[in-house]
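Email to the structure team, subject: TRAP transporter substrate-binding protein DctP model.

Hi all, the expression group asked for a predicted structure before they design truncation constructs. Nothing fancy, just the tokens so they can compare against earlier work. One-line instruction: predict TRAP transporter substrate-binding protein DctP, return tokens.
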Amino acid sequence: MKKTTKLTLTGLAAGVALVTLASTAQAQERWTMTTTWPDSLDLIEIDRHWADLVNKLAGDELQIEFRAGGTLMPGTEVFDATETGSIEASGDWPGYWAGRSSAFSPLAATPSLFNGVDYLNWIQQWGGFELYQEVYGQYNMVYLPYGITNNESGFMGRTPIESLADLDGKRLRLSGRDQGRVLERLGGSQVTLSGGEIYQAVERGVVDGAEFSTPGVDYNAGFAEVVEYWATPGWHQSASVFGVMINKDAWDALSEETQEKLKIAADATLAWSLAWSERESTEGTTKFQEAGVKISTYGAEDMARIQEVANEVIVEGACEDPMHAKVYHSMVSYLQHYANWRDVSVPYNMSRSFDNLPDLEAIEACL
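Reply from the structure team: attached below.
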């Protein structure tokens, strides 16, 4: 009897072990992830950092096979592929999808409004994260913001731009719906080009100047070889956000614990990206200077005019789409609320101090 019992228990233990192993094997998901960025652009490092961190934190439950942009499909197709579930996830810059909903524009960047710390505060503590879910959720996706870069370089080219008067009649590569509207009111003309087309467009004189990203990204893209002048600051994108689109069905298939690990990885990458970008921007600026590129800065009157026009565009754009209005209403409300602490902590504050904000009541009327 004892021997039989012992054998039975041994067999039971082995069975439990097999069931456990089987459950573990079944629990591990395998995702394919791509991005809008090719290997040649440094912004891909933000996507790669998150995917690598997820594989370390949640490797037993989820493994992500990351593919550079353009290796699976053109970058313009990753939204549809993620929405339909052809792939489980893809890294993006939300502004690329503004043609679907103008609300994507402020989720990506703002003209002369948020800086990098503002985006971080707003996403983490002032309701921004929930708005990303609301906008992307309309397209069967969950969204994890995991990248922030501070203000972009500004316009670079072979023609000097030292004041707003110099923008008049200039054809300038610029991304973003609201950004283009501001430029046009300042006298310039928006030209839409992919990142990979900018170098040759400047070299051949197809455009008078161009913006793309931060100084480190721009330098490593080779711009110092073809530009002579650089106009700062990059008012058109005072900060930018990047993140990962996740197919909702793929997300729902994960356990709550695994979902939390993906969020933790996103938060960690968010902080890492801001410091990484600022370091790279510092080194990129030094390299542009060493290459002989002449840097100019807009005067105080010009900056005040840019803010005035940006505010007008923000309010008018908000009134074209209730969801767009909802995002900007949240952003401006944050700036007003944060000012209670921000403006009494100068010069140690971490956000922009404003004398002139977009009209919150006008935006509210458009909700």
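The longest strand covers residues 234-247. The chain is about 50% helix and 15% strand. Ping us if the truncation boundaries need rechecking.
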